[in-house]
Amino acid sequence: MIALRAPDAALRESYLAAHDEFVAIGEGHRDGDGVWVEAPDEGFAGVTFTRAGLETPEGFERFAAHRLDQAREDSPRPAGHVPCTFLWVIDDADPDTYLGSLSIRHRLTPFLLEAAGHIGYSVRPSARRRGVATAALRLALPRAHDLGIDPALLTCDETNVGSARVIESAGGVLEDVRGGKRRYWVPTGA
């Protein structure tokens, strides 16, 4: 059964294997040498997590802690970014295997309203087409509701039929298509 788990350093090896899968199909989040980069700006020192750094237990612990901290209102973040709850998707039968991630953005900026929405998710390539995203989104909706989000805006590329099905199966109602993005409002309450 699919479950959501707070970012946890115990998932380091599986997370890195998933990262390699994303990179292999051209879906990696690489920026230069970094696996994850948030550029510095006024009031934010910036952060870079390299592959080599994440391979160390200490480096990965720092990465997981950074993800957890992003849910706090007072956590440092780049200008224009909002508090965000990051959750990792696992299977209860194999809780040490990272299947994907989900993020719940606590409020919308003009950019998020147009292109990204409240909730984003990704599933590692080897775990796709097994209902992982559908189950993870259903589990995330009550958490979004607890954050005062109802309904939640979710978007997907106009050509991403699988993601559109995931959102529609959760009760998503298509509002429109803008800039190649399908925009859905999904109820989060019971």
TrEMBL record:
InterPro entries: Acyl_CoA_acyltransferase, GNAT_dom. This is Putative acetyltransferase. Keywords: Transferase. Residues 47-190 form the N-acetyltransferase domain. GO terms for molecular function: acyltransferase activity, transferring groups other than amino-acyl groups. PANTHER family: ACETYLTRANSFERASE (PTHR39173:SF1). Pfam families: Acetyltransf_3. Gene3D superfamilies: 3.40.630.30.
